[in-house]
Structure formats: structure tokens, C-alpha cells
């Protein structure tokens, strides 16, 4: 395997896998002293390490250690460990892992490094050093492009539906009140944190079937609370939409840091987020949580669509989105409907928060802010203020984010969605399902 | 708690490069929002382009520092042009969403490992000071009095920052009093009325976007002058902080953004010193020091909300001159 193929493979395939599943290799001083494999016993100082993949030791991986005292070759033993003796300390040695001796489809991955299989180590005055390589799955070699593509599409639909749950609330609020609610991301985070407090093993530890619905209800209550103490008084004062937008930015900042105050800067996990992947066909796989999340998203969106088209309040919501003054004149109680919209938006955002906590995975104080712009992209793509537009836009954004990472580095996948947003506005500023008059 | 030290730190922050950088960015935002009515939520992107343009042209292309700064400003002007063409015909809230998205794209491009050789990805860039420090005419030593004692490098950064700020404020002050500035304010109040007078509204808005963007990029360069460029700085929160500083001082004024930035940073420094000290003394209901540190950002958010609701014209603004039209 030449260096060219290695590079290509790494760039194209291994990045995501590296970030998500890949990793590993923990080897430490702990192991270093434990079991000597093939040590050049006469030399006084040692360089050692441990080669593992997902906790499984890799045997027979060849490494070369170069430095004072000449070049030495060593292979890992049945426990995945290797060590060599070297004659000098206070010197620099170069350790090279021969990637040809790794199992098929496996590579040394390190996004920060162009040649991750070559490491320099400074042997200090202690005379011992440990060298670890990050081994991950070089996906492209084992998975056909088609399988990868299908996998991405499934993940994209799953992410898109989750995004739709959040974006529908955002667009409903925009349609009925004119607020571009920058604090919507924090409503998403609220749902995830509420869920964690209810089902987390360290807090209430409710069963999941009870805890998550309660978390959604709490999120809906949060929407109601915000409307009661903030948005309704501002409606009464007839504050302009630009001011309301900046108020929502202030609210977003305040809420975000309040969350950080309570849960800290780290990541919390909901139970079951490390579920095993179930192979479907070929190399396509999904976890149980992903499947449940997909089903829940679809059910809730269908229920929401029925509510919006069949129920009185749903119809009133659409009437207000179309023309608030006309709706008020024909006897619709705008204030009540707007309150219901805030409650629905809060509940949907909370549910999306729980699902997003599994998708990421993990709960963080700024997780909502991370997808806020994707929600806006979805809403603007579909057409601001239209509920179905948000659904279509969210699916497009979800697919774009997932599928684009087949070709571009995965740390740019959100950028692709935002870039498309800007391009679409060039050609169709009202969005896909929006109407011309809305853009002003 | 050493109150004297805290007050000294607070007073010192008035002259810090961060304050000057914010003041420049807020001044650019005043041109955008205060005078032209453009809701630019991507000010962090302009600052990032200024800072990275400066650092990259010095590190990768061996430019002298002044040429690097010009590259940063030029990059921001080009960014404003690219951004303006699709968005300036759109309504205000669309512009807000698109600019914030564009700023995120810019940040992600600087953050990605794909261009690690040039941008340093997550580590950012540093070590570009040689040329700037070599141009320093001040002999080595410590100068100043009271809380404002700095060495020659620190003074050089501050002096160049203040000169930039003074020039920027003068330019903004002059052009907003010119016929061009009056047309701009007219567009803010009623775009259709100005269009019916035969003015090219799009061109005016574009010129304002470029001018404000270049000022914001100058803010980014000054912000990056003393230490390093880190992609973690140019997040959307930075945009919101600059907005807070602007609205605090007064959006449609020249000195409001400067006053707002000074107050913003003095308060931030004061709180970041005093809150952990209070937590340590046990006055904050059992919050630990880290939690006390986040408290000040909560206060920024609450302050922004209260400002917009109760004092939208800011400290120096004229209540009759509505900055929030529609």
C-alpha cells in the first residue's frame, strides 16, 4: 500500500469513523511495565506501547524504532503490546507503525497529523516512554460506496426529521408572531436537560417511558412560561419585530449560560446512548435508539400535521400565519392561539432535544445553539412561516449534512448546509414552499 | 478579596486591545445597523476575516505587518460584497439569518482540519508578531501611571489600536454628516421613499455594508495584535456581545459604540474578578468559582434584553431618532 492510497483513504473515508467509533488505544505506564514481549534486554531504557482496536488487542503489527543505537523492528504480542530496549536517554526516537501489517480496512487515524503512523518520542531522563497510535476503521476499504451512501441517507432522514420537529416550532412562532426566535435552540437544550434530570441514574431515575413524556410536557410548560412572562407582555407593549429578535438573542445568551451554571461545561449521556449497531443489509447499520427515534419523529409529525389541518386551533394558527388582522377580525382569539403555538413549539423542541441528545450523542449546555442555524436554514429553505416548508427544508438540510460528508471533511458538514442556504436565497428568496409576498 | 486590585484591573481594561477591537467592530456595526438599518448578525465573521487575513498573510506569505492588516481589511470588503449581493434585497430578518450563517461558514472554514497548514485549525495561529514589534519606535521599558502601566510592546499595540479607532470614528463622523450619510439614514427610515427620489438604494446599502465590514475587520486585527488568533473566539456569542456593546452606547451614534465597548469590557473585567471572589467568600449561595464566572454571561444576556425593551436608543442615542423601524 503506497502512501498515496493511504492518504486518499484517510481523507475520504476514515474521518467520521475516526471521530465516532474509532479511537482507542489506551496504553499507559500501567501496561508498559507489565509484560515484556520482545525486549532487547541488554539496553537499559525502554520505549513501549499498546496497539488495540475498540478494546481488542491487535497481534503481529510491525513497528520500527529509529534513533541512537540504530533501527529496531518489533511486533506486537498476543496482548497487543510491544516494547524495545534502547541504549540512550534524553534523545529523540522515531516510531513508525507499518500500516501494511494492520488488518484490512484499518488505519492509524489522527485528523491533526498528515502522517499519523509516524511518531516522534522524546525519551526523558526517566528512560521510559510510551507511544500510542490512534487506530480506527478506514471505512472505505470495507464498505462499498453504495452502502455508505445508503447509510448516510438513512442517517440524513433521521437527522432531518429530528430537525423538522424543532424547526416546525420555530416556523409556527414566526408565522403567528413575527419573531425570529434565536432562543429556540435553548428550548431544544431544555428538553434534553429536563429528560436527563428525570431519567438520569444520578437524579430521579424514572423509567424511560415515563420520564421522556414528562420531559416533553415540561418543555411545553417552558414554552408557556416564556410566553406568559416575556412574549405576551412584549406583545402588549407592541414592541417591533427587530427588537423582539434581539430580545430573543439576549434570552438565548442568558438561558444558555444558566444551563451551563447548572450542568457545567461537560457532556452528559442519556441512558442507552451507547447501544450496539444492528446490521440491516450490506454494511448499512442502525442502532435501536436510531430506529425508535425515526419512528417517533414520523408519528409526531403526522399527528402535528393532522392537528394543523383538522383541529379548530390548528386552522386558526394557519389563519393567523396568513393574515393576523383578518384572523382577529373574523373572531379568532389571537392571543390564545399564540399561547397554544408557544406550548406546541416548546413541546416539539423538547422532544427534538431528547432525540438530538441521542443523535450527537450527549447533552451539552450549548447543544441547541449548535443546531439553531441548521433550524433556521431549514425554515428559510422551506419558506419562513410555513409548517410543511419547515419539514421539507429540514429533510433537505439533514440529507445535505450527512451525505455531503462523503465528499467533504466531516467538520465542514454543517457549513455545507449553511452555504446552500445562502445560495438558495440568491435564486428563490421566498424558499421552496414560501410565497413571494413574504420576503418584502 | 482585594478590591483595590479588582478596581485597578477594571480601569486597566479600558485601554485593553480587546476593548479597542470591540469598539471598532461596534462602530462598523453602527454603520450597518444604526445608520443603514442592516441587521448584520455576522460581525464575528468580519472580525475573523480581519484577524486571519492579518495572521495568515504574515505567517504564510511573509508580508510586513501593515500589508497583512491591509489584506485583512481587503478580505472583509470582498466578503461584504459577496454577502451583500444575495442578501441586501431581502427583508431585515432574512439578512440577520443569512449573515449569521455566513459568519458560521467562515468560522468553520478556519476551524476545519482540511486547511490545517494555513489556518492552524483548532489551535489557531500565533507567532506573527515579529514584524509588528520590530516597527515599534518606543524604547524598551515600562511606562504609564496608576493602573495603566504597560511595557513598550503593550503600549505599541494600544497606541496603534487607538490611532485606528480615532481615524475610524472620524471617518464615520464625517460621512454620516455628509449627503451620503443622510441618504443612508433615509434608507433606514423608509427605503421606498428614498428610492422614489431616484437614489440607488442597493448601492448605498452595499457601500455601508463594505465600510462597516472593513471597520469590523480592523477590530479583528487589533483584537489579534497582542497575542494569538483562535477560532474559538469568533463564535456567534462574539457577535451578540458586540451588539450588546453597540446597543448599550447607542446604535445611531459615533461615540455610543466606543462608550458601549468601554463599559461592556470594564463591567466584564470587574465581574470576572469580583464574582469568583464573592463565591470564594461564600456570598453567592453556594455557587463555586467557575459557576460565578458564568454568571456574568447570564447578566450580559439579561442586560441585552432589558436594553432593547426599555432603552432601545442606548446611552448616547436620541429617543426621537428611532433605530428600530417597522
Automatic annotation (TrEMBL), chain A:
Keyword entries, A-Z: Amino-acid transport, Cell membrane, Membrane, Signal, Transmembrane, Transmembrane helix, Transport
A matching Pfam family: BPD_transp_2
InterPro entries, per database record: ABC_transp_permease (IPR001851), BCAA_transport_permease (IPR052157)
Primary subcellular site in the record, as a coarse category: membrane
Protein name per UniProt: Branched-chain amino acid ABC transporter permease
Family: Belongs to the binding-protein-dependent transport system permease family. LivHM subfamily.
Topology of the protein relative to the lipid bilayer: Multi-pass membrane protein
Leader peptide range in chain numbering: 1-39
Membrane-crossing residue ranges in chain numbering: 153-175, 187-206, 212-230, 242-263, 283-308, 340-359, 414-433
Provenance organism: Microbacterium yannicii
Subcellular location: Cell membrane
TrEMBL record, chain B:
Organism: Microbacterium yannicii
InterPro entries: ABC_transp_permease (IPR001851), LivM-like (IPR043428)
Keywords assigned: Cell membrane, Membrane, Transmembrane, Transmembrane helix
Superkingdom of origin organism: Bacteria
Bilayer topology term: Multi-pass membrane protein
Protein name from the UniProt record: Branched-chain amino acid ABC transporter permease
Main subcellular location of this protein, as a coarse class: membrane
Location within or outside the cell: Cell membrane
Segments traversing the membrane: 12-31, 38-59, 65-85, 94-115, 155-175, 208-226, 297-316
Amino acid at each position: 500500500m503506497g502512501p498515496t492510497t493511504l492518504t486518499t483513504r484517510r481523507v475520504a473515508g476514515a474521518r467520521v469513523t475516526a471521530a465516532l467509533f474509532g479511537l482507542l488505544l489506551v496504553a499507559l505506564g500501567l501496561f508498559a511495565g507489565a509484560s515484556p514481549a520482545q525486549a532487547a534486554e541488554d539496553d537499559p531504557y525502554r520505549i513501549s506501547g499498546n496497539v488495540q482496536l475498540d478494546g481488542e488487542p491487535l497481534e503481529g503489527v510491525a513497528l520500527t524504532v529509529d534513533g541512537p543505537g540504530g533501527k529496531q523492528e518489533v511486533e506486537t504480542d498476543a496482548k497487543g503490546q510491544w516494547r524495545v530496549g534502547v541504549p540512550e536517554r534524553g534523545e529523540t526516537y522515531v516510531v513508525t507503525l507499518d500500516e501494511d501489517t494492520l488488518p484490512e480496512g484499518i488505519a492509524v487515524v489522527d485528523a491533526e497529523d498528515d502522517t499519523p503512523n509516524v511518531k516522534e518520542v522524546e525519551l526523558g531522563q526517566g528512560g521510559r516512554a510510551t507511544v500510542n497510535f490512534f487506530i480506527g476503521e478506514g471505512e472505505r476499504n470495507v464498505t462499498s460506496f453504495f452502502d455508505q451512501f445508503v447509510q448516510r441517507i438513512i442517517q440524513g432522514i433521521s437527522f432531518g426529521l429530528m430537525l423538522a420537529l424543532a424547526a416546525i416550532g420555530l416556523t409556527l412562532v414566526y408565522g403567528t408572531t413575527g419573531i425570529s426566535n434565536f432562543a429556540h435552540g435553548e428550548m431544544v437544550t431544555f428538553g434534553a436537560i429536563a429528560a436527563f434530570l428525570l431519567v438520569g441514574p444520578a437524579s430521579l431515575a424514572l423509567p424511560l417511558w415515563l420520564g421522556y413524556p414528562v420531559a416533553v410536557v415540561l418543555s411545553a410548560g417552558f414554552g408557556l412560561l416564556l410566553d406568559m412572562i416575556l412574549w405576551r407582555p412584549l406583545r402588549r407593549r407592541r414592541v417591533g419585530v427587530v427588537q423582539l429578535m434581539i430580545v430573543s438573542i439576549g434570552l438565548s445568551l442568558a438561558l444558555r449560560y444558566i444551563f451551563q451554571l447548572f450542568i457545567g461545561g461537560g457532556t452528559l449521556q442519556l441512558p442507552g446512548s451507547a447501544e450496539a449497531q444492528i446490521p440491516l443489509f450490506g454494511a448499512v447499520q442502525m442502532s435501536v435508539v436510531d430506529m425508535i427515534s425515526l419512528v417517533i419523529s414520523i408519528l409526531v409529525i403526522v399527528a402535528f400535521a393532522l392537528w394543523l389541518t383538522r383541529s379548530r386551533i390548528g386552522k386558526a394558527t394557519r389563519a393567523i400565519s396568513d393574515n393576523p388582522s383578518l384572523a382577529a377580525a373574523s373572531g379568532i382569539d389571537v392571543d390564545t392561539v399564540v399561547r397554544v403555538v408557544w406550548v406546541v413549539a416548546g413541546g416539539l423542541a423538547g422532544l427534538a432535544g431528547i432525540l438530538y441528545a441521542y443523535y450527537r450523542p450527549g447533552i451539552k449546555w450549548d447543544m441547541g445553539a449548535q443546531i439553531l442555524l441548521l433550524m433556521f436554514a431549514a425554515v428559510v429553505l422551506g419558506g419562513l412561516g410555513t409548517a410543511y416548508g419547515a419539514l421539507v427544508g429540514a429533510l433537505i438540510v439533514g440529507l445535505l449534512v450527512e451525505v455531503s460528508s462523503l465528499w467533504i471533511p466531516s467538520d465542514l458538514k454543517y457549513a455545507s448546509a449553511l452555504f446552500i442556504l445562502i445560495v438558495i436565497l440568491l435564486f428563490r428568496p421566498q424558499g421552496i414552499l414560501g410565497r413571494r409576498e413574504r420576503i418584502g | 478579596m482585594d478590591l483595590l486590585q479588582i478596581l485597578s484591573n477594571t480601569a486597566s481594561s479600558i485601554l485593553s486591545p480587546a476593548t479597542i477591537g470591540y469598539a471598532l467592530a461596534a462602530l462598523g456595526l453602527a454603520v450597518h445597523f444604526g445608520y443603514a438599518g442592516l441587521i448584520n448578525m455576522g460581525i464575528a465573521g468580519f472580525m475573523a476575516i480581519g484577524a486571519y487575513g492579518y495572521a495568515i498573510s504574515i505567517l504564510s506569505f511573509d508580508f510586513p505587518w501593515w500589508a497583512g492588516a491591509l489584506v485583512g481589511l481587503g478580505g472583509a470588503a470582498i466578503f461584504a460584497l459577496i454577502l451583500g449581493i444575495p442578501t441586501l434585497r431581502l427583508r431585515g430578518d432574512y439578512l440577520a439569518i443569512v449573515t449569521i450563517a455566513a459568519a458560521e461558514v467562515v468560522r468553520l472554514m478556519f476551524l476545519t482540519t482540511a486547511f490545517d497548514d494555513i489556518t492552524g485549525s483548532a489551535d489557531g495561529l500565533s507567532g506573527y508578531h515579529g514584524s509588528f514589534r520590530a516597527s515599534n519606535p518606543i524604547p524598551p521599558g515600562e511606562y504609564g501611571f496608576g493602573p495603566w502601566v504597560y511595557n513598550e510592546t503593550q503600549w505599541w499595540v494600544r497606541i496603534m489600536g487607538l490611532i485606528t479607532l480615532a481615524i475610524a470614528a472620524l471617518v464615520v463622523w464625517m460621512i454620516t454628516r455628509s449627503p451620503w450619510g443622510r441618504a443612508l439614514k433615509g434608507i433606514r427610515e423608509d427605503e421606498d421613499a428614498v428610492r422614489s427620489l431616484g437614489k440607488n438604494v442597493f448601492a448605498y446599502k452595499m457601500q455601508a455594508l463594505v465600510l462597516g465590514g472593513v471597520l469590523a475587520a480592523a477590530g479583528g486585527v487589533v483584537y489579534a495584535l497582542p497575542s494569538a488568533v483562535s477560532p474559538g473566539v469568533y463564535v456567534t456569542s462574539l457577535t451578540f456581545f458586540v451588539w450588546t456593546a453597540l446597543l448599550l452606547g447607542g446604535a445611531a451614534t459615533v461615540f455610543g459604540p466606543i462608550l458601549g465597548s468601554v463599559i461592556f469590557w470594564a463591567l466584564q473585567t470587574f465581574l470576572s474578578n469580583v464574582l469568583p471572589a464573592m463565591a470564594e467568600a461564600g456570598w453567592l449561595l453556594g455557587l463555586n468559582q467557575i459557576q460565578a464566572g458564568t454568571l456574568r454571561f447570564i447578566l450580559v444576556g439579561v442586560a441585552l434584553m432589558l436594553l432593547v425593551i426599555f432603552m432601545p436608543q442606548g446611552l448616547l442615542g436620541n429617543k426621537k431618532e428611532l433605530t428600530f423601524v417597522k
